[in-house]
TrEMBL record:
Residues 19-197 form the TraC-like domain. InterPro entries: TraC-like_dom (IPR058596). This is TraC-like domain-containing protein. It comes from Candidatus Nomurabacteria bacterium RIFCSPHIGHO2_02_FULL_42_19. It comes from the Bacteria.
């Protein structure tokens, strides 16, 4: 490894993920909301206009910025094939066993020749605490003499307060999307870590699938 090589973590703005919230190195918080999609081509002209108008009204009511992210990944069909193979092993009917084997071969050959993609849509909701007063940090150094335990408690309280503000924004987002006919769910800690892992490791294959 070159001497001037730097770890990937140094380039990531994320400090930690806890309680379903991404804590950035600059102190900002981020929540991620997984949202469903709507196929407008299956809607009538009036329905399309109504959905677009409702979504436009939703965006205009926001007093904070959001980020809409679409993630495309190749569909991992291996767990499905493994399930079929396990069923084929316990199948007692010869004809059904043969047909299942042929179906498995067809799916495997088809997915190898054609890339089947799956799309996920996310809304990133931000919250950053703003300190009022340009010299607040300067005076706090002189007038705040707290022990490590007190500082740790204060940081936890501050995190909970900011998290509460962030959750209010998430609620606004979910309610607005719901009026557009879009289902949504806030990601927890494990789901967020998985999303970030896939973002920073786009070329890495999924874990090895073993037979049971």
């Amino acid at each position: 490894m070159p001497l001037n090589a730097r770890a990937t973590q140094e380039f990531m703005p994320i400090k930690e993920v806890r309680d379903g919230v991404a804590v950035l190195k600059d102190g900002g918080l981020r929540a991620i909301v997984l949202v469903s999609s709507i196929n407008l081509s299956l809607k009538s002209s009036d329905e399309q206009k109504a959905i677009i108008l409702q979504f436009q009204n939703f965006l205009n009511t926001l007093d904070f910025s959001i980020q809409i992210s679409a993630q495309s990944r190749k569909l991992d069909i291996r767990p499905y094939l493994l399930t079929l193979e396990n069923r084929m092993k316990v199948q007692s009917e010869p004809l059904l066993k043969l047909q299942t084997g042929e179906y498995v071969d067809f799916i495997r050959n088809f997915t190898e020749s054609v890339s089947i993609m799956t799309k996920s849509f996310f809304v990133v909701v931000p919250y950053s605490h703003v300190t009022i007063g340009p010299n607040a940090g300067f005076f706090s150094k002189f007038f705040s003499r707290k022990s490590k335990e007190e500082k740790s408690t204060a940081r936890q309280v501050d995190f909970e307060e900011q998290k509460s503000q962030l959750e209010q924004r998430v609620s606004v987002i979910q309610q607005g999307l719901g009026r557009c006919g879009i289902k949504s769910a806030q990601l927890g800690t494990e789901e967020m870590v998985e999303v970030f892992y896939k973002v920073f490791n786009p070329g890495e294959l999924e874990g090895k699938i073993t037979s049971q």
